[in-house]
Amino acid sequence: xxxxxxxxxxxxxxxxxxxxxxxxxxxxxxxxxxxxxxxxxxxxxxxxxxxxxxxxxxxxxxxxxxxxxxxxxxxxxxxxxxxxxxxxxxxxxxxxxxxxxxxxxxxxxxxxxxxxxxxxxx
Amino acid sequence: xxxxxxxxxxxxxxxxxxxxxxxxxxxxxxxxxxxxxxxxxxxxxxxxxxxxxxxxxxxxxxxxxxxxxxxxxxxxxxxxxxxxxxxxxxxxxxxxxxxxxxxxxxxxxxxxxxxxxxxxxxxxxxxxxxxxxxxxxxxxxxxxxxxxxxxxxxxxxxxxxxxxxxxxxxxxxxxxxxxxxxxxxxxxxxxxxxxxxxxxxxxxxxxxxxxxxxxxxxxxxxxxxxxxxxxxxxxxxxxxxxxxxxxxxxxxxxxxxxxxxxxxxxxxxxxxxxxxxxxxxxxxxxxxxxxxxxxxxxxxxxxxxxxxxxxxxxxxxxxxxxxxxxxxxxxxxxxxxxxxxxxxxxxxxxxxxxxxxxxxxxxxxxx
Lengths: 122, 367
Hints:
The structure holds 2 protein chains of 2 kinds.
Chain A: E1 3-6, E2 11-16, E3 19-24, H1 26-32, E4 35-39, E5 46-47, E6 52-58, E7 62-66, E8 71-76, H2 78-82, H3 85-89, E9 98-102, H4 114-121
Antiparallel strand pairs in A: 1-2, 2-3, 3-9, 4-6, 5-8, 6-7, 8-9
Chain B: E1 8-9, H1 13-18, E2 22-26, E3 29-34, H2 39-48, E4 50-54, E5 59-64, H3 68-75, E6 88-94, E7 100-110, E8 113-118, H4 123-134, E9 140-144, E10 147-152, H5 156-162, E11 175-176, E12 183-185, E13 194-199, H6 201-212, E14 217-219, H7 222-231, H8 258-263, H9 269-278, E15 282-289, E16 300-302, E17 308-318, E18 323-331, E19 340-345, E20 348-355
Parallel strand pairs in B: 1-3, 4-14
Antiparallel strand pairs in B: 2-3, 4-10, 5-8, 5-9, 6-7, 7-8, 10-13, 11-12, 12-13, 15-18, 15-20, 16-17, 16-19, 17-18, 19-20
Helix pairs in contact in B: 2-7, 3-4
């Protein structure tokens, strides 16, 4: 059973066993506008919570996507690098960015649930 | 981006809100940045159909009187008296050092009557400058309060024709006053055929209703305006040209005719002529980053040996080009098309090739 968490930085984290899948929220992609470039991390890269892990660039500007928890990158979604508009059209599903094996489950308790995130974006 | 409270609102702000535009601050104005179509589709729509831009943040100056031509020939590197009635010309205000205070389009409307179109960010400074120079001339300078609309794209002319708007027979870089309080020119900032129309607010609301009855017309925001002009190789004052750059550096000497240089009656003439004689050590060029990653304004440029050699002054993604596009300054020796430099982006050096300008061919209507 997967559980989805959110961050105040407009990321979603879907957790299944010890693997977390990370992407940006639909609200985030809407705010950024048409994406033209996605720079993904390397598989095997070790991440600390708060690390700038992915860069997404719209026509106008570049934005960082941060690691929501500590862990190690196990898989990246190359489809978003070859077609950044996938993040616009399917931010919460096919437009996921990376998967990570996380090391500190306690960090999940600091994240938002869907209701908490919705309250933030209004 | 400024804070909402401090920003001036466009006269048609309510229409942009009704169109659910997303707003941002630019040059002191709350401007529609994108509409629900989004920057990419707005950009492509302009290249294929007719994009409508609210550019009321820009400033129109009406200059009239027996000394009007002489004033403008002093304030700008321009022979205003040599312009035909109806002819428009791209020109500048220069400072004493030939630095570019602003770039402008001046249209001759009559024997003693001209329209000056200036950038929003410089409107107050331009007005003070122009009034200061005008003290020595017999003429009147009026800063006009108008809605200013641009309709751009291959369908623009037909849209206006179908809406019954006079002026669709103008050639590019020509303008006139179709009726009292109106100014219309065939010009724009996208590289496409198109028109710019200044008019009173009430007339603008009527005109827009007519235009939006045509399904080829869509609002286009400031974001796409920027990517369109960048693909077209057109300068944005404050970025690609500033008082720190002169027309020689900027590669804009084509806008200053030989007779104007020889007469040297304009402000900044001595410095400009000296610069022409000595030559510039840098040049404004088009830049094409390798790959898909855009290189942005203020990214530093390096040569192969890692020496800092220049600066990116505008950078974005080019929706029509299909790759990132940029402009910037490089040394003369690295300015030939195909030259390789490197832009620093977040600590990485990205290979960038000097590219010809424009990135997307101009499609002006030459008549």
